[in-house]
Amino acid sequence: MRPGDCGIGLRAPHVAEVLEHRPVVGWLEVHAENYMGGGTAIRTLERVRAEYPLSVHGVGLSIGSAEGIDTAHLERLARLVERLQPVLVSEHLSWSVTGGAYLNHLLPLPYTDEALAVIADNVARAQDRLGCRLLVENPSGYLRFRGSSMSEPEFLNALARRTGCGLLCDVNNVYVTCANLGGDPAAWLDALDRAAVAEIHLAGHAVNNADGRSILIDDHGSPVADPVWELFAHALGRFGPVPTLIEWDTDLPALGVLLGEAAKARAYVSKAADVVAA
Amino acid sequence: MSSLRELQAGFRAALLDEAEARVVSEIIDDGLGASARLAVYRHHVFTSLTDALGTTYPVVCRLVDRRFFGWLADRYVRAHPPASPCLFEYGGELAAFLAAFPACAHLPWLADVARLEWAINGAQHAPGATPLLADIWRSLDADGLAALTVQVDRSVTLLESPWPVDAIWRANQAGADGAVDLVAGAVRLEVRRIDDDIVLRALPAGSFALRAALAAGRTLQEAVDRALLAEPALNLAREIRALLDDGMLVLPG
Asked: Which terminus has fewer CB within 10 Å in chain A: N or C?
């Protein structure tokens, strides 16, 4: 995989078509937790892996959990990584497990020294077991905690410094978070440590109404919005060509629609490279 | 400010039990109130887990209709939140939950349909294994044979119901007309994955007892005793041969 290659999130309904038609796309990313069973899904994915660079994107390790990460789940992730030999492995700046219950969402953290110590320990443990660098993604935000003493980019930069982890910059999440919580998304990107960014995510969001106010929801259910493409151009200007992924989960369209979005992302990367060359 | 551990426990209470008091004071209340902000997270937790349950239990969902299923899934999630992020493993207590759920008391077969769907789900995700075929069996000498440990293919579930749950399940697949003769009576089913296909088949009492006992980890002697109790005229030689021919026994690992 080359730095500016653009890929798509591979979802179960598209797997057979990808294997049959072998579409031209830079790389593919899958959600780790969907492939931790022993059935046909993982064996089919191994055939995909033989044809494309693959990224493993975890959604359930809960690296922000105060009670620590679940050893059994880390083991399952490690076995999957050993089996698939992915080019990238990523997780989220969030938590979802407390008291042994898994709340299926990327829940928000207060950006405090205490939370930084917790998540840094968890990331270090995960990287030790996985034997590779973990990329940590900024989540979409719907609330802020009073106790936060750092901004989100400051917290991510500190985590990367402390653990050596990389950052996965989800540009749509930056846009959604800044719209919901206040803030300038371009300034958010400018505050992120450029050397740590190793992957970019793009996706669509929904605009909902909550108590008479609009709130953006990161539902991955539509094409990337125009202002997010503009923000992506800004991100490329700052981070350079970074492997970029189109995510789509809700109301999944035909594979061709995702490939079209990836081609559009690729055009932005080329344009950014031209600007740098000129 | 509370510790991170307390904050996360409070967040859980706010999402699952609507007990927001502990966490609301920690959330910045600008423009949109803390409750409305928490509701965004709660909505996603419940809709995504309801979807996960609907994926594992499509026939139960169809039988009670989608809206009612959403309501019962909401109750189920509060009582049994997932213990693992692998959502294909979520929902193992749904059959027991339905059996004790007063709003479903008029559907006495529903819990057994859920047991069947859980067995199908388990078969889909079970690890593959090497079948203990007759030639492996034959290649062993007496010591090797004595030391051999076998287990039943982990994709297998043996399931008994007083209701024709296999017919109910088939009648509610895409393209079927939904008509079932509920008085068709009890079934003894074997559910398993063979290659990439899920196979459901009804077994006679003796075969069922033999296989159920082996799947439960009983010795061959105990399994044979139970099979003969269930069906005194059982042809044991044929049954044991069928175990091998069906690839039911696998090497542990």
From this structure: C
A226: burial class by Cβ within 10 Å (0-12, 13-18, 19+)?
exposed
- Residues of A (217-276) whose Cβ lies below 8 Å from B: 217
Partner A contacted by B39 (CB < 8 A): yes
* B16: nearest CA partner in chain A: A103
End-to-end Cα distance, chain B: 49
Q: Residue B146 — very low, low, confident or very high, per pLDDT cuts 50/70/90?
A: low
User: Going along chain A, which residue ranges are E strands?
Assistant: 6-9, 28-31, 54-57, 88-92, 95-98, 101-107, 135-137, 166-170, 197-203, 206-210, 213-217, 244-247
Tell whether the model's pLDDT for residue A210 goes beyond 90.
no
Nearest to B61 by CA among B104, B2, B100, B106: B104
Q: Residue A200 in contact with residue A235, Cβ under 8 Å? A: yes
pLDDT of amino acid A88: 98
Enter the ipTM.
Answer: 0.95
Cα pseudo-dihedral A83, A89, A94, A95, rounded to 10: 10
Q: Which two tokens stand for residue B228?
A: 């003969």
Residue B143 is predicted with a pLDDT of 79
- Taken in order of first residue, the domains within chain B and their CATH numbers are 1-107 (no CATH), 128-253 (3.90.930)
pLDDT surpasses 90 at B132: no
Å from A243 to nearest chain B CA? 26
pLDDT digits (tens, 9 = 90+) for B6-34: 999 999 999 999 899 999 999 998 889 99
Question: Rounded distance, CA A132 to CA A271, Å?
Answer: 32
Q: Enumerate domains of chain A plus CATH numbers.
A: 6-277 (3.20.20.150)
Question: Considering CB atoms only, which of A59, A73, A142 is closest to B37?
Answer: A142
Is the Cβ pair A144, B27 closer than 8 Å?
yes
pLDDT digits (tens, 9 = 90+) for A153-183: 999 999 999 999 999 999 999 999 999 999 9
Residues of B whose CB is below 8 A from A75:
none
Instruction: Decide if A145 and B44 are in contact by the 8 Å CB cutoff.
Output: no
Distance CA B135, CA A271 (A): 63
> Distance between CA atoms of A60 and A251, rounded to whole angstroms?
22
CA angle A11, B169, B182 (to 5 degrees): 165
Identify whether the C-beta of residue A97 lies closer than 8 Å to the C-beta of residue A70: yes
